[in-house]
Design brief:
Layout: E1 6-11, E2 20-25, E3 35-38, E4 44-46, E5 49-51, E6 61-65, E7 68-73, H1 75-78, E8 87-90, E9 97-102, H2 159-185, H3 192-256, H4 265-276, H5 280-293, H6 299-311, H7 315-325, H8 340-352, H9 358-374, H10 378-387
Parallel strand pairs: 1-9
Antiparallel strand pairs: 1-2, 2-7, 3-8, 4-5, 6-7, 8-9
Helix pairs in contact: 4-5, 4-6, 5-6, 6-7, 7-8, 8-9, 9-10
């Protein structure tokens, strides 16, 4: 019985961060290239990033040891892969497909995404610096002889200068005091006519204010009565609308389940796998709730949870993962492409793990493969030979 293709990606300990080793076992022929497809959006990896059309990648180097083909990959592949994402590996030479299993990858610090491997960077030439020429010391100038200046005798202060200065200060103070007295202390009081003119204006302003306040109070009272009537009408409408929308709101709350409404299903699945992946029962419950809420829109995040639980040994999760790949099953599979070989492998694992309900789906799959083989499908013929 021929083995199915297995693909495992691990870090390259010899070359360091940003490099990896892709080990392929179960190849039906010689392979020299590969294709990587992302499960969440069915895009393909290319040198320029993820794209819609398929692209064949070439490894940095390859070898074959005891039937296991190994590809050396560079940062162009490693830096574009996410350990929380699911990928499918396709061998264009043999047509084989398999789910890509990977360790926690170590990305390069430079984030090289210009190709499948980092280019060779030529060493920077070292230019030998010539010793700088030291300038010849300039001879210090001869000191100048100090000239002896005759010391002038300090003038003796005259008492008349001090007296004149004091008199000038006193005169300035007297003039400033007289100016302040004339302008502030002797200002005439305002005329009585101005006061009499202000009184009628004040009375007129008070009358205008009283009339304005009265009109404002009347408008406010009318507005309050209108608002009260409008409020009563809205309350009557709300009481009728609440009865019709209450069941709908309750259904929406039940449909949200434990996943909440703040996070998208895919983000919720990733956070759960990052923090609580070991709780496979919780993974199963969260996946079932997503499929129940919207089996078509939530097919991809539910598959992430089911596949992780299946890889941890959960038998019923293995069965459900097989149904995603089973082309004979009427299952919402999102971006997961039908794969007869993958479906058979997961059904066999589920049956071996003790899931008794797998036998019926296994029989339907075998009948589907037999029908395809009869129609001339080469892959179905090979798979049917493995069954027999």
């Amino acid at each position: 019985m021929a083995q199915s293709l297995h693909a495992h990606l691990s870090n390259d300990a010899h070359r360091g961060a940003g490099y990896g080793i892709l080990a392929l076992s179960g190849c039906t022929g010689q392979v020299k290239s590969f294709i990587i497809q992302r499960s969440s959006d069915a895009r393909y990896l290319a040198p320029a990033g993820w794209q819609e059309s398929s692209y064949t990648l070439q490894p940095d180097a390859s070898d074959n040891d005891s039937g296991t083909t190994r590809f050396a990959l560079g940062a162009g592949v490693i830096d574009n892969l996410d350990s929380l994402e699911n990928y499918r590996l396709i061998l264009p030479e043999t047509g084989q497909k398999a789910a890509l299993k990977m360790d926690t990858l170590i990305h390069s610090s430079l984030g090289n995404r210009q190709g499948m491997s980092a280019g060779f960077v030529p060493p920077t030439p070292v230019v030998e610096s010539k010793p700088e020429l030291q300038p010849e010391p300039t001879p210090a100038p001869a000191p100048m002889p100090e000239l002896e200046m005759p010391q002038a005798s300090a003038p003796k202060p005259s008492p008349w200068g001090t007296i004149v200065l004091v008199l000038l200060v006193l005169a300035a103070l007297a003039g400033g005091g007289w100016w302040l007295y004339q302008h502030f202390m002797q200002s005439p009081p305002p005329p009585p006519i101005a006061q009499e003119q202000e009184k009628p204006n004040t009375a007129k302003a008070e009358g205008d204010k009283s009339a304005k306040d009265a009109s404002t109070d009347a408008a406010s009272e009318a507005k309050a009565q209108g608002d009260a009537a409008k409020k009563d009408t809205e309350q009557a409408k709300d009481s009728k609308g609440a009865e019709s929308t209450a069941p709908k709101a309750e259904g929406t709350a039940q449909q949200g389940g434990t996943t909440g409404t703040a996070l998208a299903p895919l983000e919720s699945a990733r956070i759960h796998l990052r923090d609580h992946a070991a709780d496979v029962e919780k993974s199963m419950q969260l996946a079932q709730e997503m499929r129940k809420a919207d089996s078509k829109a939530n097919a991809d995040p539910a598959f992430l949870l089911l596949e992780d639980a299946a890889q941890r040994g959960k038998a019923d999760a293995m069965h459900l993962v097989g149904r995603y790949y089973d082309p004979a099953a009427q299952e919402e599979r999102g971006s997961i492409a039908p794969d007869m070989a993958q479906a058979k492998e997961w059904y066999e694992k589920a049956a071996k793990a003790g899931d008794a309900s797998t036998a019926q789906d296994m029989a339907k799959l075998k009948a589907y493969v037999a029908e395809k083989a009869k129609a001339g499908d080469a892959q179905a013929k090979r798979l049917l030979q493995q069954w027999q």
